[in-house]
Design brief:
alpha+beta; 5 strands
């Protein structure tokens, strides 16, 4: 039972996501997804371990997660397609399904930079991946 946004949590999710078939992005996915690779960075402020960056890469029909320090020193390569900035309580609420990304965005609880069409497409792909991996992941603690 890994704690949210820790290296153990990321490792469990990556193991669960391995082999989950993902759909291709739809026709409205935006120009950033035309090559099939998207990098979404979530800058989460105020976690129990300090600020972190969760880097999600969608590439060649796979999803891979990685953690980076939240100090903004080393941006991922290639540069992120989308960057989301939010607080730990909001990230946890979204992880639990208590707050949707659309609700958070409309309420001004998150800030987004980059290709919003790619963000919407990545959310659709991530939702599909999550449903394929749900039985393979231990419950998360917060």
């Amino acid at each position: 039972m890994a704690r949210f946004l820790t290296p153990e949590w990321v490792a469990e999710l990556n193991a669960a996501l391995a082999g989950v078939p993902l759909p291709d992005p739809g026709p409205d996915a935006g120009l950033a997804m035309t090559d099939g690779r998207v990098t979404v960075v979530e800058e989460v402020h105020g976690t129990p371990d300090g600020d972190v960056r969760l880097v999600m890469t969608i590439d060649a029909g796979t999803v891979h997660l990685a953690l980076a320090p939240g100090d903004g020193e080393d941006p991922p390569e290639p540069p992120p397609t989308v960057t989301i900035v939010l607080s730990y309580p909001d990230a946890a609420a979204m992880s639990r399904g208590q707050l949707s990304p659309a609700q958070a965005l409309n309420a001004g609880r998150i800030r987004v930079r980059g290709d919003l069409a790619a963000l919407a497409a990545s959310q659709q792909i991530l939702n599909h991946a999550r449903s394929g991996a749900v039985d393979k992941v231990a419950p998360t603690t917060y």
